Amino acid sequence: MAHKFYETVKRNFDKAAALTDHPKGLLLQIRECNSVYQMRFPVRIGKRYEVIEAYRVQHSQHRQPTKGGIRYSDMVDQEEVMALASLMTFKCAIVDVPFGGAKGGVKINPRNYTEDQLQNITRRYTMELIKKGFIGPSVDVPAPDYGTSSREMAWILDTYQTFARGEIDAVGCVTGKPVSQNGISGRTEATGRGVYYGLREAVNQKEDMEALGLEPGIAGKRIVVQGFGNVGSFSAQIAQEEGDAIIVGIAEYDGTIYNPQGININKLIKYRKRTGSIVGFPGTKLIKDKNAWTELECDILIPAALENQITKQNARKIKARIIAEAANGPITAEGEDILLKKGVLILPDMFLNAGGVTVSYFEWLKNLSHMRFGRMEKRFNENTYGNIMNAVERLTDRKIGIKERNVITRGAEEIDLVRSGLEETMITAYHSIRGIYKRRKKVEDLRTAAFICALDKVANDYIALGVFP
Ligand code: NAD
Q: Model pTM?
């Protein structure tokens, strides 16, 4: 199946490339993965040794460092990592993050290992990357992906630092770190928050929503989410809390829960923490059928688990008018053809889930500057706004209430700046791909538009570098 994923990425690339006038050789260079490091290493698990299969792929070094998450899953293989690394290049270009694309994968199911064993595997994997020069703040910077989190990033950082004596920017070797370990506020929620900003912008376009038979605006939209992990849970939570969307269904590997009146996501997160599953959440109906989530009555479907989830087998029965690709590659090529014929609006992965790498970029900048965002200007701004308030009070001879004064004079914390930078990035990126989609006659979908947007930027880099005439 992963094999299919890489084929789909290449098919989508070719579809867009045919609509550009870049030379063939340049397009081929952009299409292929530059460096593929396949490794096997032994790790002691209890009384025996296991030989672990792992990868790091750098798709394009037209900008450096390269960047991309590390996935822990027993479905990892070389083609999957190559597909994900390719998407990273295009993703970074779309959101103007100045990195090349990369991705890592370790073929394990993390549920089968203890925390200590996972730490050993992570540290050994990092050692392999160090040995071959596949990690470093100016070379290649990993981040979390499916099956990994800030915990693994802290282990990677610690291992890297052990061998990077005197390297002043060493903490920039990995992003998605815990905030206390040189991470940045807002990274954990970043991909889900980016999904929300991108989706909100798309549904705010009156003309596009009318074409789909929907009212503009996110409020009241019925949403179903597949995968209640990092990306899925934050997408659902933020869409509900900040957008007043109604989350009617959540699908996990052990079942789908449904309530047409809406599911309280904050309560569901607590319930899952307590019980280890979403199954049995009060007020919801449990549907065991694996495909049920695709067939539920809703306006927006958010696949946020893995690739190849929407296929020719289930695409026809989808009722949603919008599919928001929070996961990478959730729709197969055949599935996509069916959906486009049905007039479904697909918000492509390489745009919609780019919030993670965007905030990773902010974290990397923070690491290189050795200072948190907001430290220099927060108090200065608060004092300035306070002075303005005093002047207004003097000139109008009226007192401004303390609550209102506090809101107006607040200086930005790091989290405010991160969210603001992310919101700006997602909105700008959406309009750049929508602009291509609307302007260019032969561009029939947003994915092709996103590819063209990315391709043009990467091609310009190669041309500017003098690699191609
Ligand atoms: P995660 O491991 O935190 O969560 C994934 C969830 O999906 C898990 O709860 C898992 O049980 C569930 N799941 C797996 N298979 C399923 C199935 N068949 N049906 C229903 N649920 C299933 O992973 P994540 O970081 O949230 O990543 C999810 C997707 O988002 C991946 O495609 C990843 O590449 C992509 N992504 C992640 C990030 C990030 O910052 N973490 C950034 C960009 C893209």
A: 0.97
Low-confidence ranges of the chain (pLDDT < 70): 1-3
Q: Which of 80, 86, 432, 423 is closest to 243 using CA atoms?
A: 423
Q: How many CA atoms lie within 13 A of 11 on its CB side?
A: 13
Domain architecture of the chain: domains with CATH: 33-183 (3.40.50.10860), 186-377+412-469 (3.40.50.720)
What is the predicted pLDDT for the residue at 2? Answer: 52
Is residue 457 part of the annotated active site? The answer reads: no
Shortest-distance atom of ligand 1 to CA 305: 7
Q: Is the CB of 5 under 6 A from ligand 1?
A: no
How far, in Å, from the CA of 146 to the mean position of ligand 1? 5
Nearest to 295 by CA among 316, 279, 311: 316
Give the integer Cα–Cα distance in Å for 37 and 119: 21
pLDDT of 72-128, one tens digit each? 999 999 999 999 999 999 999 999 999 999 999 999 999 999 999 999 999 999 999
Residue 51 carries which DSSP code? E
Q: How far apart are CA 460 and CA 167, in angstroms?
A: 32
Extract the tokens encoding 259.
């309530």
Q: For residue 44, give the 3-state DSSP assignment.
A: strand
Q: Which two tokens stand for residue 436?
A: 């291509």
Q: Helices 446-464 & 2-17, crossing angle to 10 degrees?
A: 70
- Residue tagged 């005093």 (tokens): 390
**Which of 84, 90, 99, 146 has the most ligand 1 atoms within 8 A of CB, as the residue to mutate?**
146
Helix axes 150-163, 115-131, angle to 10 degrees: 50
- How deeply is 53 buried, as exposed, middle or buried, from its count of CB atoms within 10 A (0-12, 13-18, 19+)? middle
Q: What are the residues whose beta carbons fall under 8 Å from the beta carbon of 217, sequence distance 6 or more? A: 203, 204
- Residue 443 CA to residue 337 CA, distance in Å, equals 14
Could you tell me if the CB of 122 is within 6 A of ligand 1?
Answer: no
**Residue 65 preceded by cis peptide, ω within 30:** yes
